[in-house]
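Hello again,

I reread your note about wanting to compare the complex against the isolated chains. To keep things tidy I'm splitting this into two emails, and this first one only covers the full assembly. Below are the input lines as submitted, including protein chains and any nucleic acid or small-molecule components. They are followed by the predicted structure of everything together. The single-chain runs will come separately.
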Amino acid sequence: MENPSIVQTTAPLIEAHHITQKFGDATVLKEISLTLHPKEIVTLIGPNGAGKSTLLKVLLGLIEPTAGQVIRKPGLRIGFMPQKIQIDATLPMSVERFLKLGLRKQPAITQVESLIPTSFFKSMKNRFLKGVKTFFSTTDYNTTAINKIAEELNIQTVLQQPIQKVSGGEMQRILLARALIGEPELLVLDEPVQGVDLQGQTELYQYINRIRHERGYGILMVSHDLHIVMKNTDYVLCLNQHMCCSGLPQNVSESPEFQALFGTHTESIAFYEHHHDNTCEHTHGQPHIELKPENPKPPGLVESSNTSKSSKLGKEE
Amino acid sequence: MEWFPSFMTFALIGGLGLALISAPLGVFVVWQRQSYFGATLAHSALLGVSIGLFLETDLTVTVITVSLFVAWGIFRLGQYKELSSDTLLGILAHSSLAFGLILISLQDNVQIDLMGYLFGDILSINETDLYLITGVGLLILLFYRFHWKDLLNLTLNHELAQVEGINVKRIQLQYVLLLALMIALSMKIVGVLLVTSLLIIPAAAARRLSSTPEKMLFMSILIGLISVLLGLMASYFADLPTGPAIVMVATLLFLALLTKKAP
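Full-complex prediction:
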């Protein structure tokens, strides 16, 4: 499963071999393999229920696969951006604090004790507060990292707001910031542009693409948004329980399996040369679409990808 | 302090101690939406009482053991997603209550004051209880010293916390066991039916006064202490049942703070 376009000299961040995942009798994933190197973007696409999120959880070590093996680089630092996050309104938490909680343990900056004499009560109060902070291990971290990332993602203005009050688009950027704050080697993004308007989506993808070059992150991403994603992805895995097709974006988008799943209206990425390099054939063990096995291009699926697009447009902020 | 009868001393120290240990656990009960979990543990504490009576073992020890066991059981069952935890807790709470009541009714020779267990009897606090409360308090202090940040992170999102290297299961289990301990101890004071209120009402009231998790923790300790103090006074001077009096004061504080806007 080597990516032919990039000559790899570095060791992979994460490798998965023949992952099979069953929940009860249902096989959710079947024999999935993939490799991810630093600076590489691998995108998982596939219809709802294809097992994308399950595969992500297996790779993250959140669930043990029924069969197969996941090899992570020793000590791998992962930044994870979950699909959504629900925080109870009773938890008083600012966006800034949320980001701070993602900082990895690092020596706090030792603050130079001020030599200016302070009043007795003031110094007592300071000492008490310092004690409290030490108790909860919330001593002032190096917050420059937070400010820098907040600025890059344009969320400085919401830093002091309660995290429950931010908009959907802001939340996505906050979650991305949180994933970045721990200086990860591998970024795992579960539908990073959910609820973000079209322009925001492009910007977010451009940002993700930029940081992987600047900082050398490997990026594993789940996405529905085929059009924008394709441009920057190095490698695409099209999942529908089994590995439906995989390879370079251009190859995948042209493959009949992909078109069966997503339809042929992928104009923006239709310039690429048709080229078969994958193992996925129509006679592949089980039907691609369980609901309508007799129809290789189910109109329902094509429509559903259409509607999801338009509903996103409707949601623009 | 001649007007201050000595039997109130234990009640006062015990009650204030309980407020101190329930607030730190209570904030997480509120943040993690686990009030029903607390109620279930409380109901199972009554099962502990009846088992203790049945086996003729020390009641405090039996109640603690049963509570810890039930907490561990719920925690393990919660790992399976088949039943919604709401349903699961409902079944457990009421079946353990029913089973406990049946077990008590089967013992003809035992005369027990069921009301005392349902609504609490603060005057029954003895020295052992005070030691136990102190012990649990120290455990909680230690636990929060090392895991406060981890607890906050896993409250925000379990998966995120685990990916960031926190042993979510272990910490959550430790927290749940501490909760079971606290509930077993507080049954004596506020009773099975009111235990959860001691956990959630001070925390909910503190929300209005707090802009950070730490502030909310301290505010909820403060509100808990005030509730116990005023509740005991009301109980003493107006001859009200103690547990309900404490809960009433806490609720009044909560209502008073409702008018304030959350920061």
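For quick reference: Chain A has a mean pLDDT of 73.

B.
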